[in-house]
Amino acid sequence: RVLIASRIQALSTMAAERGNGNVKRQLAEVFERSLRATVPSEVDVEPIITVGTGNFGDYQCNNAMGVFSKIKGKNAEFKNPRSVGEAIIKNLPESELVESCSVAGPGFVNIVLSKTWLAKSIQNMLAEGIETWAPKLPIKRAVVDFSSPNIAKEMHVGHLRSTIIGDTLARMLEFSGVEVLRRNHVGDWGTQFGMLIEFLFEQFPQWENETELPIKDLEGFYKQSKKRFDDDAEFKQRAQKAVVSLQGGDSKYREAWSKICEISRREFQKVYVRLGVQLEEKGESFYNPYIPKVLDILRSKNLIEPSEGAQVIFIEGKQIPLIVVKSDGGFNYASTDLTALWYRLNEEKAEWIIYVTDVGQREHFEMFFHAAKLAGWLPSDKYPKVNHVGFGLVLGEDGKRFRTRSSEVVRLVDLLDEAKSRSKDALIERGKATEWSEEQLLQTAEAVGYGAVKYADLKNNRLTNYTFNFDQMLNDKGNTAVYLLYAHARICSIIRKSGKDIEELKKIGEVVLDHSDERALGLHLLHFSEIVEEACSNLLPNVLCEYLYNLSEFFTKFYSNCQVVGSPEETSRLLLCEATAVVMRTCFKLLGITPVYQI
Ligand code: ARG
Prior knowledge:
- The protein is α/β, with parallel strands linked by helices.
- Helices cover 54% and strands 10% of the residues.
- The termini are far apart.
- Arginine is lined by residues 145, 148-150, 185, 187, 337, 340, 355, 357.
- The site of arginine has 10 residues, from helix 13 and strand 11.
């Protein structure tokens, strides 16, 4: 009994520490007590609580079947799973959450939540802030490795996806109380720099005097230098020597290298500023000095073997081993990633390391994760852990890889420009040019345009390819950011037009959920915390998008069936509007979308 009591104690402190909003977890606590009373011998049965599927309950407890098969033959009290379900209900402790329960089918326990409790929870959230509904993850620090374009190459739509998805994951983790190291693992190291540097020396003999190199089109510069490299054997030799000088730390070569990197960095930064994305660069070059030491650690564990002149790690079930030192003695993508992982675990003390790239790189991640497991760096499937967050391709309307008409890689800046100008046109069409200042027009166009690009990406399961289509993403109907942003603005305008001081209502008003559409909206609001936790734990932003879209649907239903302004329930209903707006805004924030308040 002491054991059970202390376990319950531990569970409830855990729930308090981990944020109060999670209904599933709060129900789990209540049902855990009932399970202990129902089958005291089965101390390790964990409560299984899910969101209700039918019309009979808001949530379900699904333990009866499992418990019955465990105790069958041992305990004569129960004849079938149903009788276990009935006993679970009978043994439920007093709880303000639960209104009523009933057994369905083979023993599912349907749970109806108390609407008074629902109403109160919403009121509390309004008074104390949405942070009280934030999930709390059991880790302190995570690395999200995202965006990570390559120097001297164009940042393409794949990098855009990585930037958008990675930023959202970072935001969700941060909201859940985790410190996130937002890492831009740029490709700033490698043999291509030899030819770039030599070409720079040729083209700009004065390069050392320039604080900023006058190269507008670094990608074009890259192509020219590549041509030079392929066409001229003497240049090629110089370029190869330049790599050696650079990697040997020759200051002149380091200087040239860093100036070249700076050009790309400036371009990347433009995109990040527009998207409102924060990143801290620790490029491949950063880890270079640590590689020999990390490889020695792996060698000491007998993991590295020579193979055809290279040094490799053999991975069970994989035909080709992981190459960690090339046959020319150089390091590669894998040696850098193994070292970066070592650094993140040991120097940065990250407990969860998340990599966001296209699914095409899955094999690479599988391989070096496996090597890290062999080295004992990732001892369990709990924390510290690593995840590769893969995503599909961005397709054009022709179903092929997204390209411009001249079949070039699409420039991100152009893409964002177009999204912005299209949404500006749409606003002008709605007559906003006369109603609003130019500044408000532009700000809204940006919020809507960039929001649309982000949301169109995030709403899909990230593993699938998605088709980039401006008309679709900028449609003001359907599951789009435009629709959702407008819905939010409309809620704000309902509150504004009521003429009531919402801050005052929060202090004195009371939420009541008597109408079934009020209750349905209230219940959906209460799902927020567990949805964020699910989206975050499973690294699936689309879960949050779906929640947000459904929220707007529940709101529409409520608003069309319940008069707000001028009704006897006005105060409560305005508070419900406000709560919806707060939760919507929080979803926008987590998705990296700037809300609009007026439309
Ligand atoms: N620079 C790589 C690319 O453009 C992505 C790097 C991802 N991060 C990593 N740690 N490997 O494909």
